[in-house]
Amino acid sequence: MPFLATLPIAFLAAAAAGFVLERTLYRRLYRASPLDQVLFSIALVFMAMAGATSVWGPSQQPVELPDALRGQLRVFDSGLEVGRYRLFLVGVVVVLTALLAWLIERTRFGARVRASVDNQQAAAGLGINVGLVSMRSPTITRLYLQCKPDENLAEWSDARIWDELHTRLENNDGWHLKEGPILQKSVTPMRSFVCETMQHGRLFLAGDAAHIVPPTGAKGMNLAVADVRVLAQALTARYRRNDTAQLDGYAERCLQRIWRAEHFSWWMTSMLHRFDDHTPFMQRLQRAELEYLTTSPAAARTLAKNYVGLLFADAPARALNAVGEVSRSRAA
């Protein structure tokens, strides 16, 4: 088989083998300890080496190079000679590195890869403070700019968005916002909603199916995870101990946290957003509240406690009823 034809075949064969190993073996170790994963990888390498030795023997196998890759090349008439095959390998590495960098930095697939690489321990090892980083990943985030509810997205070019973000996020401390590709644009309605009927028979609602919060307080995912945690505990009690008490009290346990988060998100939205129907008096009240929040340690602690997340309470909350809904401003 021609030498150059074997190169893509080798890459494809390695990719196929990796796919099979991930599907059959590695996937079972995703929740194992790092030590178990390392030991398994080392064992797999030794097994692969033993298999290759059994098939091809312990001796090195000769590779027939094409004539174009044989011999030496003189470098700048300096007397230094470099093998053509080595130069070929260097060229292949450079091309593949450039293609990989372009794939990771400039394509939607690369954006998804960067978004999935979100290991807090690895980030901490690099000196990144991950305590309160509200981002999709270390390299991808979602930012909001207030606009009209019927805003035409065609009028919001990437340059205009970056200009608005520079204006809002930069100050006089020398820090500058780093620009990158904008992956998605949309108009998000600033809406609050709670459906307190979170269970009916064997149907249980969780997350956005039961409640909506505006993104100002960053509580949507927190509430969804909290709902699932409560439901998982209740299902575990039902099927391990035949205890239905937690399932029966699922909505009660969730709603106490939901209404606290709803109030926090509503409060943040009311304080930070401008509304067309606000009088100058109401606007001054907003500013006074914001100034108090940024200067009072007590107010800052309250904000931090609600923003970071509330503790889980195992005791059922008191029963609530009715459906609450309020619509406010919108943001993009």
Automatic annotation (TrEMBL):
Keyword Signal: no
SUPFAM superfamilies membership: FAD-linked reductases, C-terminal domain, FAD/NAD(P)-binding domain
Membrane-spanning segments: 6-26, 38-57, 85-104
Keyword Protein transport: no
Organism: Ralstonia solanacearum (Pseudomonas solanacearum)
GO molecular function terms listed in the Swiss-Prot or TrEMBL record: FAD binding; transmembrane transporter activity
Name of this protein: FAD-binding domain-containing protein
Keyword terms of this UniProt record: Membrane, Transmembrane, Transmembrane helix, Transport
GO biological process, one term: amino acid transport
InterPro entries from the UniProt entry: BCAA_transport_permease (IPR052157), FAD-bd (IPR002938), FAD/NAD-bd_sf (IPR036188)
Domain of life: Bacteria
Domain FAD-binding: 131-264
One GO location term (cellular component): plasma membrane
